[in-house]
Write a structure and sequence with these properties.
With 240 residues, this protein is an alpha/beta fold. It contains 8 helices and 8 strands. The protein has a single domain, classed as Rossmann fold (3-Layer(aba) Sandwich). Strand 4, helix 6 and strand 5 form a beta-alpha-beta unit. Helix 5 packs parallel to helix 6 and helix 6 packs across helix 8.
Length: 240
């Protein structure tokens, strides 16, 4: 349990019942989920995937780390992957299992930290870790476990807020305290990690970053990916 911040797990576990409400406390995640899926699709196509295939992940295994109630795990399953989702909060796992059952989806959910899975020896073709690394206690141990869980020919895709003055103003002051679009207390700005820091830490763990893109809000369009990484960013990494 070295990588889990129990206070943060309790915080997000308390939101489990609201996770699938598109207008509830996880509304922001619902809005960025299409961007997440678009980025994942682009990363897979860049590795040689066939854009004409309906189920792009058919025949592959995927692990969603910090899966919450399954907002990303379920679309990955619909793309054809055999999906495992893990989360630090048992309440989230219960909500994820219930929602998958109502939709007739087969997803393996576990309330477990990454280091437990890593010790079990499983590997996955795709590992996703969205908005999670800024909540863990021990990043080197966490990233090392992600490397163990990523197959030699696999792909790791992550997203996380950047640690900048603009991210503090936007996410902490604006989204949490003023607009209340994100539950207050969801983020600790001091735990945010810059792209250069995360790239170096991933290299130390045995990855090389192959792509990095920023997530921003465009009036009239919504969330988009681009060059501006000052608030939030996505990256793709592969084992070295």
């Amino acid at each position: 349990m070295a990588t889990i911040d129990t206070a943060e797990a309790d915080f997000f576990g308390a939101l489990a019942g609201d996770w699938w409400d598109p207008n509830g406390s996880s509304a922001m995640l619902h809005r960025i989920n299409p961007v997440r899926l678009g980025y994942i699709r682009d990363a897979l196509l860049a590795k040689g995937g066939d854009a004409r295939v309906r189920h792009l992940l058919a025949g592959t295994t995927a692990l969603d780390v910090g899966c919450g109630a399954g907002l990303l795990a379920e679309p990955l399953a619909r793309m054809g992957a055999a999906v495992t989702g893990i989360d630090a909060a048992p309440e989230n796992i219960a909500a994820a299992q219930a929602h998958a059952a109502t939709g007739g989806l087969t997803v393996t959910y576990r309330a477990a930290p990454v280091e437990v899975l890593a010790r079990e020896g499983a590997t996955f073709d795709l590992v996703t870790c969205m908005e999670v690394v800024e909540h863990v206690v021990d990043r080197p141990t966490f990233l090392s476990a992600l490397r163990t869980l990523t197959a030699a020919t696999g792909t790791l895709i992550m997203s996380t807020p950047n640690r900048t003055a603009l991210s503090y103003a936007t996410l902490i002051v604006g989204a949490e305290r003023i607009a209340r679009k994100i539950p207050r207390g969801a983020h600790d700005w001091h735990k945010f990690v810059t792209p250069n820091e995360l790239t170096a830490e991933l290299a130390a763990a045995g990855f090389v970053v192959t792509d990095t893109r920023g997530l921003t809000w465009r009036p009239g369009t919504g969330f988009v990916l681009g060059r501006d990484m000052s608030i939030n960013y996505y990256l793709t990494a592969v084992p070295t």
